[in-house]
Amino acid sequence: VGSQNGSYSDTVTMTGTLVNGQTAPTGIYTSSFSGAAFSITLTSNTNSPPTTCTTVQAAPPILTATATVIKSCKVTVASNINLGSVPSTAVNTSGTNNISVTCANTTPYFIGLAPSNGSNTGAGTMSGTGSNTDKVPYQLNSVSAAGPIWGNTATSTSVGNGVAGIGTGLAQTIPVYAKAPGANYTPDIYSDTVTVNVNY
């Protein structure tokens, strides 16, 4: 400013961190800083302060911090469901494993499972290797191997024949069961790929 009365303006970039944002409910958050929480300090590059800038006569400045916590979900799969090695006479062979779902706090979510054959009722088929054309049917279930079928009719607003949950911001573990009613097929290693769809 020098020795003349006047004004000065500048732009300052400030960065903030949302503490515990992972577990905060979705929404818009604001906080205003003014009065004792906000101050401007004038300094001089000389040994004595400038005589014209020792007093600031102005309305208290106000700074507003705003953050928006959006809906979000992610899913991870621990490992495959392994029905094991079974004889051809085996019936109702089942296996289980967990999926982990992490959704923003208070966010409702609905999970669908889709076998590679496109079934919406969780009724998939496992394929063999090489020239083996046999298909081993299996059923996806929730709760237990004999529980409700777990299909892929869930949407962002309805559970359908899937599984529902409400996010906490932390990982939630959900078991998935698969059951093969029979094993009288060509000896081989059979497998299928299931897509996990999280709707929110």
Summarize the structure in words.
The mean pLDDT is 86. β6 and β7 form a beta hairpin. The chain has 200 residues and is mainly β. The chain starts with 26 loop residues before the first strand and ends with a strand. It has no helices and ten strands. The strands form three sheets. A five-stranded antiparallel β-sheet has the order 3-4-9-7-6, with no helix packed on it. A three-stranded antiparallel β-sheet has the order 8-5-10, with no helix packed on it. The relative contact order is 0.21.
Which key phrases capture this entry?
elongated; 200 residues; mainly beta; five-stranded antiparallel β-sheet; 0% helix
The gist of it:
The protein has strands at 27-34, 62-69, 73-77, 91-103, 108-115, 123-127, 135-141, 163-166, 171-182, 194-199.
